[in-house]
Structures are given as structure tokens and as C-alpha cells.
Specification:
Pfam families: Peptidase_C69. This protein is an alpha+beta fold and about 400 residues long. The protein has ten helices and eleven strands. A four-stranded antiparallel β-sheet has the order 1-2-3-5, with helices on one face. Helix 6 (about 265-280) runs parallel beside helix 8 (about 310-335) and helix 7 (about 280-305) packs antiparallel against helix 8. It is globular and about 100 Å long.
């Protein structure tokens, strides 16, 4: 990859990737060079048994040229860094400092993601959430040894994370999440331009996430990609069998993800509709969605554990399409269950309103009426209800006598 980038060039903003097979994992960074004809790149091996987070920013820091087992880099890297004063020619070159720009957007746009991801892998480290990504020096470790073995289910939860249970929990803000605490913070509004120092936290799962995937690699064996189109918190991770030297067979529900028109056969659109509907009453709907995700994905896990890769591959397209239909129906289920401020099933319904905290913040208690008006109304209603009950009871008693 690096050699091709040097030979044929690389255009656009820098990119940070993870490359893995059944034996090793590398973090790969690439950016254009100063001739517009080649590229600068570097790669660092992730230690065995470690996990890392690469959140749209360079994380490779000091490169040891004497450690060829763990570091690779382009032939022009040192010359370019030296020519522009990004490295003084002594000591180890810091790739992120020389060829990156640190945080973009706000001071924690990537740093909080790194902190959260590494903290989910290894909570015992008690990492500081306020360090951010500093341009001048490293703040967080390149990788960590997880406290517990990493499972597919753990990775699903990580992809769907909104920093729940932390001071930065996007589902816990009384005002910003609206009456039903959605974690979604739509960016780019013109009103935001009036606040020079304002920003929202950036979660791992976001409303503009286009997909998430979990690639499981084995040595001398087939591989599996669990693919979740759209925002992971509103999507499902469906399996794709990937065999060496073979193209993946067509899976119709994964072929369409154009945002210009809804397609009811697309898993991307099924997930997108679920995620958008959840915004209406997130703090209630998320429980139903998580339950459905667990049930469907648990069946997938059972299939992957009990059936052969060949058998799974044969039925994969039809199987994933059936999941797509089930998930497209999920948003109708949510709309039906939580319509008009209630849960409606059969003849019973219960109100699901905002929290007390949100009502207070919204000024519910400041309605323009005096306490005396409220008291008189309630007293009058109570007296009227008593009269109505008396009339009804008398009518029922009379009807019983006639029977």
C-alpha cells in the first residue's frame, strides 16, 4: 500500500487506516507529499493482545527507524519533514506532529473518542478524558491491553456507544437531547456560527455515520465481516463470509445506500429509518431497539457458531435480506407503539412524557395562570366527577334491579 502510494501518488486529505490479517495488525497513515506526485506514509504494528482506536486522526507518534519489526515508512518521510522544519534531524520523528494538525472542529473532537474507546477496552487504566489530541506531544497510549477478552458483542456495543454513564453522556443532557434525550446533535446549523467557542461532544456512533464493521480474521481460514449500514445504534451487524482469493457473492440488501431516495429493500435505509424514528422518543424506543438487536444478532451468533462457512455463504444473501425486511418493519413497530405520546397495544395505553428535569428546564412550571386558578379548576372538576360517578352508579343499580 505504501509503495503504491509513493509510486502513483496520493490525493486528498490524510487518511488513517487499520490493516489486519490472521497474524498481525498495523495502523497505516498516508498523506500527499509536496510534489503532488507521490505520498508520505508510515505504519506501526499493534502489539499482540492489544487494541487501539483510530478516530479520524493520526495516532502514530515517534517512529523508531531501528525497529523495522514494528515501524515502516516512506523513503521521503525524513527529507520532507526536515525540509519544512517539522523535524530537526535529531531524535525520533513524531509523525502526527510532522504531518498532522492535531484536533479539528473543537479541542476534543478526536481525543474524546480515543479516550472513550481505550477506556472501554481497559477501564482499569482510568485514562484522563480531558487530555485531547495534542499536536505537540502524545497524550494517550498508541494501544492498550484489554482488561477482558474482546468479543463480537463487545465490539457491537462499542460501535453503538454514546459515552453513556460518563460526564459526557449524550443521552443524559436535560436540554440538548430534547424531551426524550436523543444523543443526536445535528451539526452545521447556521446559528452555531454565532458561538465562537461552542461545540457538541462527538460520540462513536453518530447520526451521520455511514456504516460500521467488525472484521474477524483467522489464520489460514475464512474471514467474516459483520457489517452495519448507517448509524450503528440504529442498525444491525449482518455477516459476510470473505474467503481468500474469492470475490464476495452479491447481497442485494447491501447494494443500495443512495441517500437521494428511500429504498425499502435496502438495509441501509432500514437502519436509517429506525435511527431517525428513534429521535422522536429515544429514551423509550432505545430499549425496544436494543432488545430487537440482541435477539436478531444472537441468532446470527448461533448460526456462525454451529454452521459451516460454506453453508452460511450459500444462504447469506437470502438470510441478510430476511433480516433487512425484519428491520424495515422495526420502524413501523416503533411508530405504532409510541404514537401520539402514548404506548398503544390493544385497548390499553400509557403516557410516555418527558422527564421532570426537562419539564423544569422548558418552563412547564411557568405557565401563565395563577395557583388559585389551578386550585379552583381542580376543585370544580373533582366535584363534577363525584356527581357523574353518583349518576352512573345509580343507573347501574337500576339496571341490575330490572334484570
Amino acid at each position: 500500500m505504501g509503495d503504491y502510494a509513493e509510486k502513483y501518488g496520493y490525493y486528498g486529505s490524510g487518511e488513517a487506516l487499520v490493516v489486519a490479517d490472521g497474524e498481525e495488525v498495523w495502523v497505516f497513515h498516508v498523506t500527499p507529499d509536496d510534489t503532488a506526485e507521490s505520498a508520505v506514509w508510515a505504519a506501526q504494528r499493534v502489539p499482540k493482545g492489544h487494541a487501539t482506536i483510530v478516530p479520524n486522526t493520526f495516532i502514530i507518534r515517534e517512529i523508531d527507524p531501528a525497529d523495522g519489526d514494528n515501524f515502516l515508512y516512506s523513503t521521503n518521510m525524513y527529507d520532507i519533514a526536515l525540509r519544512y522544519g517539522w523535524w530537526d534531524g535529531s531524535g525520533l520523528l513524531d509523525f502526527a506532529y510532522a504531518f498532522g494538525a492535531g484536533e479539528q472542529g473543537h479541542p476534543y473532537v478526536s481525543g474524546r473518542r480515543i479516550w472513550r474507546g481505550l477506556s472501554l477496552f481497559a477501564p482499569s487504566l482510568n485514562l484522563d478524558p480531558t487530555l485531547g489530541v495534542e499536536w505537540e506531544h502524545p497524550t494517550y497510549p498508541f494501544s492498550v491491553k484489554p482488561d477482558e477478552p474482546i468479543t463480537i458483542d463487545f465490539m457491537r456495543r462499542l460501535y453503538r456507544d454514546h459515552m453513556e454513564g460518563t460526564p459526557y453522556d449524550l443521552t443524559g443532557h436535560v436540554v440538548a437531547g430534547g424531551p426524550f434525550k436523543t444523543p443526536v446533535r445535528y451539526p452545521g446549523g447556521r446559528a452555531e456560527e454565532t458561538f465562537q467557542h461552542g461545540a457538541w461532544e462527538r460520540a462513536i456512533s453518530e447520526e451521520h455515520s455511514y456504516y460500521g464493521f467488525i472484521a474477524v480474521t483467522y489464520k489460514n481460514k475464512y474471514n467474516v465481516v459483520y457489517f452495519a449500514p448507517s448509524s450503528p445504534h440504529g442498525s444491525l451487524f449482518v455477516p459476510i463470509i470473505v474467503k481468500p482469493n474469492q470475490t464476495v457473492k452479491s447481497i442485494p440488501c447491501l447494494e443500495y445506500a443512495w441517500q437521494g431516495a428511500v429504498n425499502d429493500s435496502s438495509l441501509w435505509w432500514a437502519a436509517e429509518t429506525v435511527a431517525n424514528v428513534m429521535d422522536l422518543k429515544y429514551m423509550y424506543m432505545i430499549n425496544d431497539v436494543r432488545k430487537a438487536q440482541f435477539e436478531i444478532e444472537h441468532k446470527i451468533d448461533e448460526m456462525m457458531a454451529t454452521e459451516s462457512p460454506d453453508d452460511i455463504e450459500k444462504k447469506m444473501a437470502d438470510y441478510d435480506d430476511s433480516i433487512q425486511r425484519e428491520w424495515m418493519n422495526m420502524h413501523y413497530t416503533l411508530l405504532g407503539q409510541y404514537q401520539n405520546g402514548y404506548t398503544n397495544w390493544g385497548y390499553s395505553k400509557a403516557g410516555y412524557g418527558p422527564s421532570t428535569e426537562w419539564l423544569q428546564a422548558a418552563g412547564f412550571q411557568d405557565f401563565e395562570a395563577t395557583p388559585e386558578q389551578f386550585a379552583a379548576l381542580r376543585k370544580r372538576f373533582e366535584e363534577t366527577q363525584k356527581q357523574a360517578d353518583s349518576i352512573r352508579n345509580a343507573a347501574l343499580a337500576s339496571a341490575k334491579e330490572e334484570l
